[in-house]
Amino acid sequence: MIIGGIQKNSLIDFPAKISCVIFTAGCNFDCPYCHNPELVDPPFTTINPEEIFAFLNKRKSLLDGVVITGGEPTLQKNLFDFCTQIKSMGFPIKLDTNGSHPDTVQNLIKNHLIDYIAMDVKTIPEKYIPLLAKNTKAETIRESILIIINSGIPHEFRTTCLKPFIDNDIIYEISRIIKGADLYVLQKGNLENTILHPEFFQNREWQVNATEMENFQKTASVFIKNTIIR
Fold this sequence. Notes:
Mean pLDDT: 96
Shape: globular
Number of helices: 7
Distance between the termini: 31 Å
């Protein structure tokens, strides 16, 4: 496991739980609006997994769960064993993923190693290349979506709303693909923090206004009853 950081307390990342958030390092996507660029490409500042386990052991009475996010956690070769050890300590696990490794997601679900899963659906799967990734096939993203929807565990899908990745037609298509999901979160995009490729947004209209967000929510709600703006 390559662990790039830890947030020791969070009230918002794992629904209804006080959690810590573990950030894995390394990502196979190249989203221009990424707000964790330090977790995308090496060299990384890393934390020994044993330090994580020692921390969790001390916080058993204070934490209700553990969130594993990134970067992209499913790139980690030891993710299965890492989750197994955390579960053995009695912690529920929430996994954040970009959906690029459906086999890994399926394996974790099948072995009851995750209790909640959140997947980012960034745009229509057929548009991931070249906007967001170099070699992630649309079928891969769609496979992960189906695995999660059929998993039987609580889940959510999330979309960061920035142009040109999102418009009402794109929200319609995404919503149709994730029809029946537990929750769909439309995230307000912003470029206020450090991002990976600020040059991508120069001389480009990227903002989505409040009215557009409300329209996105109405469009998505036809397919996913529980659609929220965050």
